Amino acid sequence: MNQKLIQIVRKLKGSLLGIGLDGQILDVIEKNDNIDNCFIMSDRHKFDKKFDFFGGGKDKKVNIKKIRKVFKKKSLDTIICNYETIKPFLRRFTSNSIYINKGKLYIYGQIDDDAAEKIKKRYSRYQSKVEITKAKTYTIIVIDNQNITTSFFKDKIYLVLDLLNDGVDILTTILVG
User: Cα–Cα distance between 29 and 106 in angstroms, integer?
Assistant: First the structure.
């Protein structure tokens, strides 16, 4: 499955935001000449003139919750992120990724079926096209955010609905367990 993700990264063009990427994927990004700007939010550092790093060490740290303030509206062509990195911030990351992304969003990692369906449901509310590709250990979710419009009120309503949904999930887990 990692090979499929590497093939996707080799074909990318334009600007890219990577969140929690592996070293092997960073190497492929570095070799890709079609990527103009690359922003990496990761603890692993690999300094090159192509990369702008956020997070770890003495560099500027950007919280995933406040990513909307750093990037302008529809300024990124592609976002690639590891599910384990964005999992605690998924509620806010959904609306923020749609706001800053004008192309495709790739979420990869060990994602169970319930979490994949939850992600699909959250992005389908914005009329995004969502494809889920599964293998033995990895799952890649491809979300197409082209021609998607957002609204301040729509984002706030979905944020409250997601908060209530997560609260109900936690409550049922406590009552059942």
Answer: 14
